[in-house]
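Batch job 17 of 40 flagged for manual review because the log was empty.
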Amino acid sequence: MQSSTNQRLWSTKAKTLDPYVPGEQPKHDNLCKLNTNENPFPPSPKVSQAIEEVLVNQATALRLYPEPESDKLRDTLAKTYGLQREQVFVGNGSDEVLALVFACFFMQGDGKLASAKPLFTPDISYSFYPVYGMTFDVERKVIPLADDFSVNVDDYIHADEDCGGIIIANPNAPTGLLMSLADIETLCNARPDSVVVIDEAYIDFAVVEGKSGLKVGSAVNLIEKYDNLVVTQTFSKSRSLAGLRVGMAFANPSLIEALTRMKNSFNSYPLDRLAQAGAIASLEDSDYFSHVCQQVIRLRDELVQALTLLEFKVLESHANFVFVKPPTSIVEGNSEQLASVLREQGIIVRYFNKPRISDYLRITIGTKEQNDRLLESLQALSKSQQKSEENTETSKMTNNTTNKRDDLRFFLKCYNANTGKSKTYRFDNQDALAEFAKKANSKGLTIVDTHITFLGVELLFAPISEEDSVITATDINFAEDGSYCLNEWAKSFN
């Protein structure tokens, strides 16, 4: 029995929340899941080995709480990124880390939103940011991205309002576009009294040109230079551990201390023993990590090339997904319809029914087999529409030709007193028939029978005898403008 939700005992906050809607996790066989930006490859084999080690050899320890500050994991992260433990914070996925960031640095705490300094966020970005803002009573100033969906740093620097903080996903989601490190430094310099948060969930797929060749464009190394910079990352994407829930933040020790205080006021043990062991093993297998990232980037480049050949508009991606606008040659460019059609074929992509991006789809980079399956479906849809358009055009041409003949449904059978013979005349429209009838008597013609089929009304006439002369299609002259007349008409009234 279904029961309606009873909100009588809810707090005002709970009643007013508009929760985040996570990406769909359907459970179907043979599903090509390209909607939630999970890594198409499994985590390092060392992850499962480390977790198994805990379960087999340290199972009795599971009765104890895990290390509250995850110091061993933080030490391993610090070593990996060339930092100190005091510059590293970890949490139960980057979503929890970001929630604590909002609570620590953006929540004003006086309950007076009208007097609060707003948090600057892009209009198109991670859709959890507005939810955090609502949850922690953080007023936001939404700053539109440029027409090409890039971040215009000047808009954040020269805004009239006082700045209560800045948060930007880089690479941005769902666009996949990347801000330069120079732009991030400009923001930190321009807003020294505001915390600048750079959310780098996809940064390991963002390879850019550097002085020493290709490198990942992370802002982590900038935290030594800017005490107002927080960089967040996750194990969910590049390390294939979305199911383990491990996220981290990098910042100067004073900001890390604030996050720790807030964490311990909410959940002192965010990471269990298995998560800590698996995350450490992933960090220690750097070769596997690099290989997987390179594979995803290669598959992304191949998919971009293939989609471009299909005339998709593809934004330059630095993530493990592409943001694309379908061409008119595929379901007439309707992205929502395309997502629906692909779903019917067992391929799930992400559609956003939001201003400015409702014409686009976000497609996660899958395995080669998954990408090929997607491309085969898109190619088939393109050919199907092309064939449909050709058939429609052919049908129009055929109908135009057929209508010139079949629309002639007006007949008069007349007796000619001068010749003593009867003749049946066929006309292209009702007006022509009426005009003929008016002049028939003056030409010595007597109307004997009529046969008119017009708008479903039919008047039959007696069968025509063999000696009657019947006008046929060969007696019809077609003019360039598509009109037509009867030779017999011209002969009768010259």
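Reviewer: the log was empty due to a logging misconfiguration, but the result itself is present. Confidence is low (pLDDT under 50) at residues 401-408, 452-494. Unflagging and moving on to job 18.
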